[in-house]
Amino acid sequence: MGDRLEDQDREQLLLTARRLLAEAQALSIRISAVNEIATAINRTLDLNQILRVVGKQSKWLLDFQHCSVCLHSTNNCTTLFGPPINADISTLPENGPIKKAFKTKQPQLIQDGFPGSVLSAYNSQIIIPLEIENKVLGTINFAATKPRAYTQEDLRIGYLLALQLSAAIRNAERFKEVNRLYLELETVLEQLSLLSTYEKTQSPPPTGTLNRSKWTNELKHYTTRFISFGFSRSLSLVANHFLVRIFY
To answer: Is the overall model pTM greater than 0.85, yes or no?
Structure first.
């Protein structure tokens, strides 16, 4: 009998229906696991904690002996599970699957090993780019020693995880950058306070204190940076009754 449903007898149809139902249930469980991981990693803005959650819970999605994340921001690959790989991204082979994922923005499915790559000890590999807003942040990598261990369905599940992880990494990096900008802005505001005080007393400010023009330029710089993170397009600051407002 053929593989077409209309060519199958009753017993074969029952077996086919049971197989399809089991596959659908397994896929549903894996998608639910992706959603649970997404919920967990979106509870924190700490990058290290995000990666720990992914390394711990990804076993619900895929069978692997190695899991790692390579990020442009650190120029390094962090091992989440299995033997560590200490790889500087800039030294990875140009024709290797990780660099290829970076360049093409396409997932890489390796079925029978890739000699010379940083994961050459593993026959089966899934390399998925972490992309958001048309920018590749890095890759998430899964590997197993068994040849042909992964299917296209595994690749799709890994892709769903990569979407969630990309957003979490982007948010964590922005949070870190915003905190850095706030600290730098506090320094500028301290100088503004000094400037206001010396303007009132009509005495010269200490050497190194920003004058009004330079302070305005500094404020423009920080306003532009905050706008890039989605903050208000106007920035109002009051220090010692001295008000400056810049609109874009």
So the answer is: no
